[in-house]
Amino acid sequence: MKKKFILLGGLFFAMFIGYKYMYHEHRNISSEDEIFNGTATVLKQYFYNNSSESDNKYLNKTVVVYGEVSEVEGNTITINDDVYCVFDKNVNELIISKHIKIKGRCIGYDELLEIVKIDQSVLLN
User: Fold this and answer.
1) Tens digit of pLDDT for each residue in 61-98?
2) DSSP H or E segment with residue 40
3) Where does residue 15 rank: exposed (0-12), middle (13-18), buried (19+ CB within 10 A)?
4) HSE, side-chain direction, 13 A CA sphere, residue 98
5) Contact yes or no for 122/29 (Cβ under 8 A)
6) Which CATH superfamily is domain 29-123 in?
7) Which of 75, 84, 93, 120 is least surrounded, with the fewest CB atoms within 10 Å of its CB?
């Protein structure tokens, strides 16, 4: 009988750990300190020149990027044709050629399109 309780307790403990691992709290990017603060072109050049080092340094980290809006589509924008940003809300009100500054999580460099991708973006100005 004692073994059944121990096994049952171990099972519940494993389920609890699994639940916490799968459903952990989301990051609040807007309150995090950024590891990079610069133009979209400079960030792209870092990835273009040394992709593996840039992955280690910027991947899944908070960055601040600024430049001119080159494309707007729904909840995404492109800055200087170098950085692709995904927002949680629709950003159709942004005007092409407007100078903006965003903060978000760098999710990597798309070598095919030669563009840095950022999600969880927040408009800073």
Assistant:
1) 999 999 999 999 999 999 999 999 999 999 988 999 99
2) helix 40-49
3) exposed
4) 14
5) yes
6) Nucleic acid-binding proteins (2.40.50.140)
7) 93
